[in-house]
Amino acid sequence: MKHEIGWKEKAKRAAAKEAVKRVEDGFVLGLGSGSTAAYAIREIGKRIREEKLKVWAVPTSYQALLLATENHIPLTTLYEHPEIDLTIDGADQIDAELNMIKGGGGALTREKIVASASKKVIIVADETKLVKKLGVNNCPVPVEVLPFAVSYVAREIEKLGGKPVLRKSESKVGPTVTDNGNFVIDAYFGSIETPDKLRAELKSVSGVIENGLFIHIADIVILGGKEGIREIKKTSI
Q1: Taking each helix axis from N to C terminus, what angle separates 35-51 and 62-70, rounded to the nearest 10 degrees?
Q2: Per residue, what are the HEC states of the chain?
Q3: In contact, 229 and 124? CB cutoff 8 Å
Q4: Where does residue 237 rank: exposed (0-12), middle (13-18), buried (19+ CB within 10 A)?
Q5: What residues contact residue 237 under an 8 Å CB cut-off, 6+ apart?
Q6: What angle do CA 8, 9, 15 make, to 5 degrees?
Q7: Residue 4 bears catalytic tag
Q8: Catalytic one among 111, 156, 201, 210?
Q9: In what side-by-side order are the strands of the sheet with 141-145?
Q10: Could you tell me the domains of the chain?
Q11: Of the candidates 181, 23, 24, 153, which has an alpha carbon nearest to the alpha carbon of residue 88?
C-alpha cells in the first residue's frame, strides 16, 4: 500500500510541474483545490521565487487561498479580472472526452465558475483518474445544495436514479459545509451513460447550486503515471 501511495504522489507532482511550465509572465491564474492542485500552487510559488515570475491568482477555495498566501502568490478576484488566462486544477474522474467529475473536496461551484471564466483549463491527475465511463468504481457526483432544500433535492436525485448521501464532516459533528455556506450531497449513479444530460437534469432541480459534472471544460489533461507523464488534448479526441 505504501508503494502505491508513493508512485501516485510522484505522478501527481510530475503532472502539476508540467502544467506550471505553461504559466507565462503576466498571467492571471485560476488555482484549483485539492491535493494535486496543491502541488501546482507550490510549483508556481517556486517559479515566482526563482524566476521573479509575475502572476495574479484567483483561488477556488480557502484551502487554495491559504496555500497561495504561504507561497507568496499575489491574489486577485473575478471582480478585478473577470477573464482568466489559465486555470490549473485536479479531478476525481476523467473520461476519454475529457468530461470530469469534480468536487471531492467540496469546492465544485467556485471551481466551475473559475474554469468557465478561463481561456484555457489544464487538469492534472494521476493516471488512475482516467476511466471509460464517469461514475464507475463507486465515484459519486457531488452536488452543492442550499441547506433548506436538502431533503427535497435528495428526493429528486432518487427520481433521477441516484442514491443521495449527505456528506458528513470528518473533523466536526454534522454535515460538510462548503466555502459558500451550503451542504454537499454525494449522488451515486453508477456508470453514467450520458453525463451532459445528467448534468442538465441536476442543474434544473430547485435548491441545487451546482453539480460536479464538468462537461466540455478541460482543454488539456496531463496525467502522471509510473512510466512518466502523458498529455491528452481536447482536439486530439
Answers
A1: 30
A2: CHHHHHHHHHHHHHHHHHHHCCCCCCCEEEECCCHHHHHHHHHHHHHHHHHCCCCEEEECCHHHHHHHHHCCCCECCCCCCCCEEEEEECCCEECCCCCEECCCCCCHHHHHHHHHCEEEEEEEEEHHHECCCCCCCCCCEEEEECHHHHHHHHHHHHHCCCEEEECECCCCCCECECCCCCEEEEEECCCCCCHHHHHHHHHCCCCEEEECEECCCCCEEEEEECCEEEEEEHHHC
A3: no
A4: exposed
A5: 96, 97, 98
A6: 85
A7: no
A8: 111
A9: 163-166, 183-188, 141-145, 208-211
A10: 2-130+216-227 (3.40.50.1360), 141-209 (3.30.70.260)
A11: 23
Instruction: Chunk the chain into consecutive blocks of 10 residues (it has 237) and report each block's average pLDDT, rounded to whole numbers.
Output: 71 97 98 96 98 98 98 98 98 97 97 98 97 98 98 98 95 92 98 98 98 97 95 73
Longest alpha-carbon distance in the chain? 54
Q: What does the pLDDT read at residue 172?
A: 82
On whether the CB atoms of residues 150 and 185 are closer than 8 A, the answer is: yes
The structure's pTM equals 0.93
Place of cell 467529475: 101
Cell of 45: 510559488
CB within 8 Å of 199: residues ≥ 6 apart: 211, 213, 215
Instruction: Give the residue from 219, 130, 141 showing the smallest Cα distance to 187.
Output: 141
